[in-house]
């Protein structure tokens, strides 16, 4: 039984997009790799990956093995590298955790769930199509709705403003904590921690 997790953070590649709202998933992976003392390196599956152990198990043992991944493709074709990594590391889709931005949640709100629809999110749609299942864990990072009449597609490709940065940094830490709780305690306990006020 392979107890390794694949944790994928969605976004778009390149410095032009690095600070975009659409890239919060990638930002969480960067933070997790720093926490684990691991470097993201190029993988033949068109992704950057770090092989790490996350968190601490009850009793103080190091947490489980986790493959942290950032697809090297654009958001709408994230599924190809994600499914290739699942095959390469022989990880079942139910041990896939995808971190992504969520327009339908207020800024800085975090929600964990398994399965469900894609809600118009092209990255999730691509992953569901490539893996043949929706039965994977999602960590949804709220970015809120665009102001006024701004198009949602333009909004997600905008950088977080300097005024939003302090709150964003807190949210990224909380998101990284949530990922660690999923892999060390299981989804249900992690959901209770995250969703209970």
TrEMBL record:
Major subcellular location class: cytoplasm
Organism of derivation: Georgenia satyanarayanai
Protein name: Peptidyl-tRNA hydrolase
Sorted UniProt keywords: Cytoplasm, Hydrolase, RNA-binding, tRNA-binding
Database matches in Pfam families: Pept_tRNA_hydro
Gene3D superfamilies, A to Z: Peptidyl-tRNA hydrolase (3.40.50.1470)
Enzyme Commission (EC) number: 3.1.1.29
Taxonomic lineage of the native organism: Bacteria, Bacillati, Actinomycetota, Actinomycetes, Micrococcales
Localisation per UniProt entry: Cytoplasm
């Amino acid at each position: 039984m392979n107890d390794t997790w694949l944790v994928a953070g969605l976004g778009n590649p390149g410095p032009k997009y690095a600070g975009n709202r659409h890239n919060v998933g990638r930002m969480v992976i960067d933070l997790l790799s720093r926490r684990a003392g691991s470097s993201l390196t190029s993988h033949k599956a068109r992704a950057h990956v770090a092989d790490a152990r996350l968190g601490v198990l009850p009793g103080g043992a190091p947490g489980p093995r986790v493959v942290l991944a950032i697809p090297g493709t654009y958001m709408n074709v994230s599924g190809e590298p994600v499914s290739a990594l699942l095959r390469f590391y022989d990880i079942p889709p139910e041990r896939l955790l995808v971190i992504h931005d969520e327009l339908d949640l207020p800024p800085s709100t975090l929600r964990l769930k398994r399965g469900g629809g894609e809600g118009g999110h092209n990255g999730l749609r691509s992953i569901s199509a490539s893996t043949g299942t929706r039965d994977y864990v999602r960590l949804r990072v709220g970015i809120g709705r665009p102001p006024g009449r701004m198009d949602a597609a333009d909004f997600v490709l905008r950088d977080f403003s300097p005024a939003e940065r302090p709150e964003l940094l807190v949210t990224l830490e909380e998101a990284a904590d949530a990922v660690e709780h999923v892999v060390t305690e299981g989804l249900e306990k992690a959901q209770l921690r995250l969703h209970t006020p």
